[in-house]
Structure formats: C-alpha cells, structure tokens
Design a protein that fits this description.
The chain has ten helices and no strands. The chain has 195 residues and is mainly alpha-helical.
C-alpha cells in the first residue's frame, strides 16, 4: 500500500479530533464581558491542543513523503498515534473546565506524553520497515527534540501537583519546539531528490 491512503485516513481523523475539540467550547450563558473572560482557561487549553494536533498533522505529512510502502506494522502504529490523539479533546475539555486544577493538568500532560510516545513508536516502526538504509533514520539524525519532549512532559506531569501553571509552561515549551514543521525532513527530502 502506498502512503496516500495512510495520509487520507489520518487527515480525516485529525479533522474529526479538531471538530470535537471546538464543539467542547461552549459560549457563556450570560452576555457580559466578565462571563466571557471567565472562559479563558477553556480557550487557552483549546488553543494549545489545536497547536499540538496541528503539529502532529504537519509532521505526519512530512513523514509520509519518506514512506514508499506502508506495512501492517506502520498501519497499526499509525492507529495507535491516532488513538492517543483522539483522547486530546477529552483531556483538553477537562483541563479547560477546571483551570489549573492538579489532576486535570497532569492528565492533560499524560495525554500529550502518550501522543509523543506513540509518535516515537510510529517512527521506529517506519525505520524498521525500511531496513538498514532507512531514509527515515537518515532524515531524523539524533532526534534531540524527540528525546527531550517526553522528559518535559514528565516534568509537567510532576509539576501539576506542585504548581500547575508551570506545567502548562512546559507543555507550551514543547509545542514551541515543534511548531515549525520538522525541517530535518524538508532538508533531507531536498537532498534526497537531487541525488
């Protein structure tokens, strides 16, 4: 199977995830600025989650250019990633509803960590399917961002029980590391296509 079907399915699931997240944002019952302002934690959690889902979608799009043939293992690893991404609307809604409460903040971080680990599983599965001369492995190099991100999530989860606001700063820091589509893939593809 070619990667176009994998991309199309992922695109559809990501669109549903974003739709579910926005449907969880309910307008205030009162028509006052104070009532609208009281919803800032909901909006902030939505924005951060939207950025995260967008990051995964962007980088998934880049990765698909490195996949010549999709194996059963890649399909299952991709489904694993999509499963954990599909939990983000729930943890986003819960965290947003309860502001900086420790448990929702920790669970939000845990869902982000699960997505990152599923992403690493997908990368590893693709590299194994490609064998010794894996173009994915060549493109990723040392993958420092991929290694440091789970550690920052773990730090955010632990901080949730001490200072939840600091957790969100760590979650936002990880997003800032990844917000630009993975340039390693773009650079590698340009070099790879020339040779």
């Amino acid at each position: 199977m070619k990667s176009e079907r994998l991309q199309a399915f992922t695109d559809g699931v990501v669109a549903v995830i974003i739709t579910i997240m926005v449907l969880e944002m309910h307008p205030p019952r009162e028509v006052t600025f104070q009532a609208l302002l009281a919803l800032w934690p909901v909006f902030l959690s939505y924005v951060l989650s939207y950025v995260y889902v967008g990051i995964y979608w962007n980088n998934h799009h880049h990765f698909a250019h490195l996949i010549r043939e999709v194996t059963g293992g890649i399909l299952w690893a991709n489904l694993g990633l999509l499963f954990f991404l599909s939990l983000v609307p729930f943890t986003t809604a819960w965290a947003g509803e309860h502001g900086f409460a420790p448990l929702p903040t920790a669970l939000y971080g845990a869902s982000l960590l699960a997505c990152a680990l599923a992403w690493n599983v997908l990368q590893t599965t693709i590299m194994r399917a490609q064998g010794q001369a894996s173009v994915m492995k060549q493109a990723l190099g040392a993958d420092y961002k991929g290694k440091v991100s789970p550690l920052l999530y773990l730090g955010g989860i632990a901080l949730a029980f001490v200072e939840p606001a600091a957790s969100y700063l760590l979650y936002a820091l990880v997003a800032a590391l990844w917000v630009v589509p993975d340039r390693r893939i773009e650079k590698f593809l340009k070099t790879f296509e020339r040779s």
